[in-house]
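Board notes (copied after class):
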Amino acid sequence: MRNRQRRAALTSTVLRRALLTVAAGTLLAGCSGGPSTSSGAPSGAAATGTGTATGGAAAGKPGTAGKLDPCAMLTADQAATALGEPPAPGKRTQVFDTPKCEWEPASGHNGTVTLEIGPWEGDPGIKPLKTGTPVSGMGDAADDHGDTGLYVREGSRGLWIWVFNVQSQSSRLDLEKQLAAIVLARL
């Protein structure tokens, strides 16, 4: 009888600790600043921090909070063109309130395509601290910042796109301009 009571007490304690751990983890996840389902991303993509780029007509439309999902702004084929090989699904993260997506080769090779979309001005905003080399024909204003990417303003919105360490016949800037044109057409 005593052993049965001890097991019951131990089981109860273990269950309480497990429930508290789950509750604490849930609270911390909600406060971590990570992506939320109100971003307009499919709930599975937001919950896991990844998104797949489908390129559908509604893919880049604002969600309930009026934010765009950068992982939905480029298709896998478009990211592959820049990477030079098929990408893994885009990884969506938050930079303060600004959504960002990063594609890497599925093979594990080096290279990334990074896209951040948000307001141009403000805190946070896409606008870089320094002016780069002007790029004509992109949005309302565009600046090339060399090895840190291309910044483009379209109205009150902005985007930052960075193609890094890829093996391609095209230059980094040419790839960034091609991808930025696709994104601008969807804004």
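Comment from the instructor: The chain has two domains: 1-32, 37-186. The radius of gyration is 21 Å.
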